[in-house]
């Protein structure tokens, strides 16, 4: 590797430090550095007179304000990000020469932005949508961007259709509704008429599209990329991010209510975890395939609507990303970060996936309009940590002061500097894939099976997951006004599962599908079900519902055991202030029934207080508890709380721990909280 490119682990943090402006520690000046004497009153001709043009400070301040906004991202506008590091577990030398994948234990700074796709920048975060999962690795050989999603496949197979997909899912142009939602006519019209979307839609209707937290969802590179090693040998590779906390979701009713109660639910969750020191961990996995095996499967490995089933091609875990620092300024970092799948390093290369090929054009193009010109790579968050030199010059917002006479290649005046580097010296050389063919506007026949993997996904779901998919279809298609589109959707998904489509048809009031040819796939892939992922109590949010004269003998050990298990606790009551227990212990109220709601918590513990509570407390508590019960959440109730519990809809059964006193490590409670949802709870019996 080129020696000038070596940087240390903290390089990104150090680099950013030089750009941090601690304005709050300094006297106010204009942008020209002039100290300001007055910032409350504009310059006027007399206290009641007109404002004068001469007031340069007023004009500078107002002009800057008038230009504060930039265009939001055309997709993925609503996002949130954090800094961290990637640590390699195992050398990938055998497969790739990428510098950051050589030495076990080596660390690379990263910046990761999660996002929704369809909504605008101010939209709610818990909508049903794909989540973006974009990671920028600041490597010593330049920035490498792994720009992925939380779903491993995509809606379309060729990038030329992306504008159509996005136009269809965005709010309808004539009335700009609905915001951040796919439940409307144009989206489902697109789906029914572009059946390559079938597999993606199964994921989109599943619980994956309503994650509980950015910290609890998987990430996928989606496309097939290439690893290339020192010897020039290539392997196909797919990338996976596996969250340490397992994969968890909201329930749909809850997700919709959170959109109102806390539209910032996901960013708050990420921000608070990092502030609390609960750093966010994802392991990086790769699926590797030898070049000779390219045609071994019954799907085309270049088709982005297909997964490589993990049971056939195992995911090899090679490292871990830890997000451990929140941004200092959301605009400067999260909003101005510019990802690009074409930002690669030697050892990582592309394939002919037609979706990927189109993306390689789109991402630079979009930054030009969004970030106002060709110099966005100079913004602190986008700067590589290694030096960069070339003959590009000028343009809006240029920050580098290029010194010297020469800005062209080749030259003799500067001894041909900046000079190119050979492959041995770290120069990027494209993989010499042999390509031949006629120029055609067509798709390979091997891309034409749209339903086999959609059915593989369906077969892999647990009973509750299948039920959620049917309910999601019924909601989404039920919002479609055009009955003909409803019918087309039902007919399309009968190819995946006729019984599922028939249930949706009943729910949305159209005919059962006729002449369906359900896919004959009988296999399943257990890795696709969320039920089979890790379940931990760590960082689960628990609300303790409590009033004055509470049973302190019960509360203290409960709090200790829950905190020891890594849960986070909010004391919730009718109003803020201190509550006093029967034995004189006191507890401070964190939130009230007005400021929070059960949808914002993973589990409840009902402690109550003195025997008779005001009616309002009882009603607010019952509302809180009933909702959590409907959302299949763990509920514990202390012995004193039984009377309160009797006034709710809660029945003894799965995930309901009555007469609960926690002692020691509180294993039963911790296991119950870890389970997250109790789908076999009978709500209506
Ligand atoms: Fe993107 N996508 N995309 N996309 N995408 C953008 O780039 C595009 C696709 C993804 O947090 C845009 O900077 C095309 C697949 C993420 O800043 C834009 C196609 C996957 C983000 C763009 C796709 C993604 C974007 C908008 C079809 C998963 C947010 C703003 C060929 C593998 C990154 C921007 C962030 C953002 C184009 C499809 C992931 C317009 C043309 C497939 C995570 O350039």
In short:
The chain has 17 helices and 18 strands.
Index terms:
685 residues, alpha/beta, Catalase HpII,  Chain A, domain 1, Hemocyanin, N-terminal domain, Rossmann fold, 3 domains, ten-stranded antiparallel beta sheet, six-stranded parallel beta sheet, 18 strands, 26% helix, globular, binds CIS-heme D hydroxychlorin gamma-spirolactone 17R, 18S
Can you name the CATH architecture of the largest domain?
Beta Barrel
Going by CATH, the homologous superfamily of the largest domain would be Catalase core domain
Gyration radius (Cα, Å) is: 28 Å
Shape: globular
Task: Write a structural description.
With 685 residues, the chain is α/β, with parallel strands linked by helices. It has 3 domains: 79-194 and 213-382, Catalase HpII,  Chain A, domain 1; 452-531, Catalase, four-helical domain (Hemocyanin, N-terminal domain, Up-down Bundle); 536-674, 3-Layer(aba) Sandwich (Rossmann fold), CATH 3.40.50.880. The chain contains 17 helices and 18 strands. Strands 1, 2, 3, 4, 5, 6, 7, 8, 9 and 10 form a 10-stranded antiparallel β-sheet that branches. Strands 15-12-11-16-17-18 form a 6-stranded parallel β-sheet, sandwiched between helices. α5 packs parallel to α10. The protein starts with 10 loop residues before the first helix and ends in a 10-residue tail after the last helix. The model has no long low-confidence stretch (mean pLDDT 96). The structure holds CIS-heme D hydroxychlorin gamma-spirolactone 17R, 18S. CIS-heme D hydroxychlorin gamma-spirolactone 17R, 18S (HDE) binds at residues 73-76, 79, 113, 115, 132, 134, 147-149, 154, 159, 162, 222, 337-339, 355, 358-359, 362-363, 366. CIS-heme D hydroxychlorin gamma-spirolactone 17R, 18S binds at residues 73-76, 79, 113, 115, 132, 134, 147-149, 154, 159, 162, 222, 337-339, 355, 358-359, 362-363, 366.
